[in-house]
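Typical record was shown:
=====
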Amino acid sequence: MNLDKKIDYSIALLRKAESMALRLDPENGFYLAFSGGKDSQALYHIAQMAGVKFKAHMNLTSVDPPEVIRFVKRQYPDVELIKPKMSIYEMAKKKHILPTRTLRWCCAEYKEFSGFGKVTLIGIRKQESERRAKRNEVELAGHKFSGTFDQWEEHEETMVTCVGGRDKILVSPIIYWTERDVWQFLNDVVKVPHCKLYDEGYKRIGCILCPMSNYKQKVKDMQRFPHAKRNWVKVIQWLIDNGYINNHNISDAEFRFKWWISDKSFDKFYADEVLQQKIDFEI
């Protein structure tokens, strides 16, 4: 489909799902998950074009780029900014472990808890990754259902009744859009500004030193936001001093920070940085 057809499809999906959203939250309708990035902007504006009822929320993590927060406050003043009860640094101490690519407790603590008991709009796209390519336009948290809206309609009565407590219905209106579609939509259709970090080389906008970012992105973050590195080194030292990190008996917090941003397992990083240096190639 070209972009015009994708826009029409997204609008139709939102309008079909609106009755479900109003059924669970008559006052606000959809719970729109906003981040300030290009995809959440596209999600926000396609919801506006559809004319559906929604309330946008942005869950802060304490490691949000200040440029993003300023952009959202200026361009999207109606978005509710939800401050965390505990900083991510203190949460790492509480959990006794750093967030990693394979253990992303940060997402669970600061992002995924929002929108329970509601129909939540999210800006994921199949093109983003192999994992997201398997996602569907309508899902029930906990993967109890995943499919198209037409499939959902067959089970809507039962599934809506089941939503409660920590369940939520996820709707992804732009799931079939490409990155090019998103930029064309923002620049040529709705004609709105975007966060300046994109113009400075950032491919994605998220938390500073996000475990899901690649190594080059983390290096860029360290250079731009040196306070984040200092804070994480302090956390790592605290974890070492309190006995929560002790493999290989390395008490150097800087060394462990370098491992944390390396995208390598600790054993692989240790072998590359320490063991390889001990080999005497003159023998």
About this structure: The domain at 3-200 is CATH 3.40.50.620 (Rossmann fold).
